[in-house]
Design brief:
It contains 15 helices and 17 strands. The protein is an alpha/beta fold. Strand 15 and strand 16 form a beta hairpin. Helix 6 packs across helix 8. The structure holds 1,4-dihydronicotinamide adenine dinucleotide.
Length: 524
C-alpha cells in the first residue's frame, strides 16, 4: 500500500553489478540486443547482432492514485467500481452455486505470474505475481470518480447494468449510493440517438468549447485535491462515438485542434475534449472505445506536453481470442482464408451500436486485428493478399450483458484440404472489461515512473533521462486497435504484446527477456 517503505515492499531484489537500489529509485544498466538486417540486392540478407545500452530509472515510491472514468455510470464503470470496493472490503457473497469471494481474475497485473528465474537449489521455476515485478499501485488503493451524462448514483446505475449478484450489491449499496457522476460533455451527434433519454447530467453547450476543456480540467484538479492524490489516470469507458471526420485545418495539428475547440467546430468529439483536458493537465488518458478520439492534432498535443495517451477499444472477448488463435494458426504454417465474426448483445453498448455510424467505429476497430500476422508470413501470403474478414453485431435485449460471440475460422491445410474452427464465446462483457480497465490504469501509472537514457556509442546516445513516448503502445495487450507512436508498426499478435509488456518490465530491473529455451533441461 502507499505507506509501505520501498525496502519492505519488494518481493525480490536483483543481485547484479548493473542494478543499484536507493531508497527512492532502482537504477539499471541494460543491454538491449536486436538484429540489424541489410539486403544484398540479390534477395539475400546479412544479419548483424546489435547492442544498445540503456539506463532505466524506476521511481520506487508508490503514489496515491485516482482513477476517473468517463461513462462511470455505465456497465463497465459500475462493475469495475463495485469490484474494487468488494476486493477492498474482502467481501464474499452467496450465489446459487455457493459462496463467491472478490478476486481480480482477468487482470494480467493482478491475476497472472511471471517466471522470475530458476531455483538455485531445486532447479524448479520460481514464479512471482506480475504485480510484484515493479513497485506498482494496488487496485484496492485507487480512489475512484468520474463523469456520466446520466446522473444516476452508482448503486442505481449498478442495478440498471444488471451484471452483479443481488447478494453482492446489497453489501456495497451504501458506498455506491454516495458515488454520483460529475456532469459530462454531451454532443448528441456523436452517439446513437437512442441514448438521449439517459442524458440528464450534461454541461451546457452541445458543441466543443474551451469552457468544456476548462471544466474537465477543474474536475480533475478538484478530485485530486479532495482525495489527496499524487496521480490521476482518466479513462474513456463511455459510449462508442461515431468517427470524427478528419478535416485539414481542424484536427490535423495541435494548434488547429485547439482553435477548432475554441471555435466550436462540430467535428470535435466529447472524447477528444476529455483527451485534450487530460493532456493539458498532464494526466494519462486512455480510450477504451473504438472511435478516433486521437486525431493527429490530439496526438501532437500529447507529444508537445509530454503527456501519456493510450488506446483504442478494450480487447476483452472475441478479438482477444482472435489475436491468439490467428497468431497460432499462421505461425503453425496453416493458411487462414476467412474469418466470420458474429456478435449479439443486449446491454446499453449493444443498443448504442445498433446505430449505423457507431457500429461502423466498432467494425473498423475489429477488422484490422490480423494484419500484422498475415503480413509477417510471406510464405503463406503474397504481398497484399489477405484472408476475408466479416464482422456483424446485433442488438438482442434479452441476453443483456451476456454477450454472445460466434466465430468461424476457415483455413487451407496440406494438399488443398480445409480446416474449419467454430467458436462460441458467452460471458458477461463487463466482467471481462473491468479487469482490463484496472490493468490499463496500473500499467499507465507505472509508465509515469520509468525513465530511460541511451548510453550507446552508435549516435543514439541521450544525455538526459526522458520518458517513454507519449503514445503508450505497451498497453496494446489490453486494446483491440492499439495506438502506436506515429510511423511505428502496430502489433496485434497477443503473445508478442504480452512479451513486450513482460520484457520491458523485466528490463527495468535488469533482468533478461523471458526465453523458453530451458537449455538447463536439454543439455545433459
Ligand atoms: P454502457 O453503455 O453501459 O456505458 C457507457 C456510459 O457512458 C453510459 O452510462 C452513458 O450514459 C455514458 N456516456 C455516454 N456518453 C458520455 C459522455 N459524453 N460523457 C460521459 N458519459 C457518457 O457501455 P459499457 O458496456 O460500459 O461499455 C463502455 C464502452 O466500452 C463502449 O464504448 C464499449 O463499446 C466499450 N467496450 C466495452 C467492452 C466490454 O467488454 N464491455 C469491450 C470493448 C469496448
Amino acid at each position: 500500500s502507499a505507506s509501505t517503505s520501498p525496502a519492505t515492499q519488494d518481493l525480490f531484489t536483483v543481485s547484479s553489478p548493473n542494478v543499484a537500489y536507493s531508497d527512492s529509485e532502482i537504477n539499471t544498466k541494460y543491454a538491449y540486443r536486436t538484429t540489424s538486417v541489410t539486403e544484398n540486392g540479390d534477395g539475400k540478407f546479412v544479419a548483424t547482432p546489435k547492442e544498445t545500452l540503456y539506463d532505466f530509472k524506476v521511481d520506487r515510491k508508490i503514489p496515491k492514485t485516482g482513477m476517473m472514468l468517463v461513462g462511470w455510470g455505465g456497465n463497465n464503470g459500475t462493475t469495475v467500481t463495485a469490484g474494487i470496493i468488494a476486493n477492498r472490503l474482502g467481501l464474499s457473497w452467496d450465489t446459487r452455486e455457493g459462496p463467491r469471494a472478490a478476486n481480480y481474475y482477468g487482470s494480467v497485473v493482478m491475476g497472472s505470474t511471471m517466471k522470475l528465474g530458476i531455483n538455485a537449489k531445486t532447479a524448479e521455476d520460481v514464479n512471482i505475481p506480475f504485480h510484484k515485478v515493479l513497485p506498482m499501485v494496488h487496485p484496492n488503493d485507487l480512489a475512484i470518480g468520474g463523469w456520466d451524462i446520466s446522473g444516476m448514483n452508482l448503486a442505481a446505475a449498478m442495478d440498471r447494468a444488471a451484471v452483479l449478484e443481488p447478494t453482492l450489491k446489497a453489501q456495497i449499496k451504501k458506498q455506491m449510493t454516495e458515488m454520483v457522476p460529475l456532469p459530462s460533455v454531451y454532443y448528441p451527434d456523436f452517439i446513437a440517438a437512442n441514448q438521449e433519454d439517459r442524458a440528464d447530467n450534461c454541461l451546457s453547450g452541445s458543441k466543443a468549447s474551451l469552457e468544456h476543456v476548462e471544466q474537465i480540467r477543474k474536475d480533475i484538479r478538484d478530485f485530486k485535491a479532495k482525495n489527496g492524490l499524487d496521480k490521476v489516470i482518466v479513462q474513456w469507458t463511455a459510449n462508442t462515438e461515431r468517427f470524427a471526420e478528419l478535416v485539414p485545418g481542424v484536427n490535423d495539428t495541435a494548434d488547429n485542434l485547439m482553435k477548432a475547440i475554441e471555435n466550436g467546430h462540430e467535428e470535435v468529439a466529447p472524447s477528444t475534449i476529455f483527451a485534450v483536458a487530460s493532456i493539458l493537465e498532464g494526466v494519462p488518458f486512455i480510450n477504451g472505445s473504438p472511435q478516433n478520439t486521437f486525431v493527429a492534432g490530439c496526438i501532437e498535443l500529447a507529444e508537445k506536453h509530454n503527456s501519456f495517451i493510450g488506446g483504442d477499444d478494450f480487447k476483452s472477448g472475441q478479438t482477444k481470442m482472435k489475436s491468439a488463435l490467428v497468431d497460432f494458426l499462421i505461425s503453425a504454417g496453416i493458411k487462414l482464408t476467412s474469418i466470420a465474426s458474429y456478435n449479439h448483445l443486449g446491454n446499453n453498448d449493444g443498443k448504442n451500436l445498433s446505430s449505423q455510424k457507431q457500429f461502423r467505429s466498432k467494425e473498423i476497430s475489429k477488422s484490422n486485428v490480423v494484419d500484422d500476422m498475415v503480413a509477417a508470413n510471406n510464405v503463406l501470403y503474397k504481398k497484399g493478399e489477405h484472408p476475408d474478414h466479416t464482422v456483424v453485431i446485433k442488438y438482442m435485449p434479452a441476453v443483456g450483458d451476456n454477450k454472445r460471440a460466434l466465430d468461424e475460422y476457415y483455413a487451407e491445410i496440406f494438399m488443398g484440404g480445409h480446416q474449419t474452427i467454430s467458436l462460441f464465446n458467452v460471458c458477461e462483457d463487463s466482467l471481462l472489461a473491468s479487469p482490463l480497465i484496472i490493468d490499463l490504469v496500473l500499467i499507465a501509472e507505472m509508465m509515469t515512473r520509468i525513465q530511460w537514457k541511451a548510453s550507446s556509442t552508435d549516435g543514439a546516445a541521450t544525455k538526459e533521462f526522458g520518458n517513454f513516448h507519449s503514445v503508450l503502445s505497451i498497453l496494446s495487450y489490453m486494446l483491440k486497435a492499439p495506438l502506436t507512436p506515429p510511423g511505428t508498426p502496430v502489433v496485434n499478435a497477443l503473445a508478442k504484446q504480452r512479451g513486450a509488456l513482460t520484457n520491458i518490465f523485466r528490463a527495468c530491473v535488469g533482468l533478461e527477456p523471458e526465453n523458453d529455451m530451458t537449455l538447463e533441461h536439454k543439455l545433459f
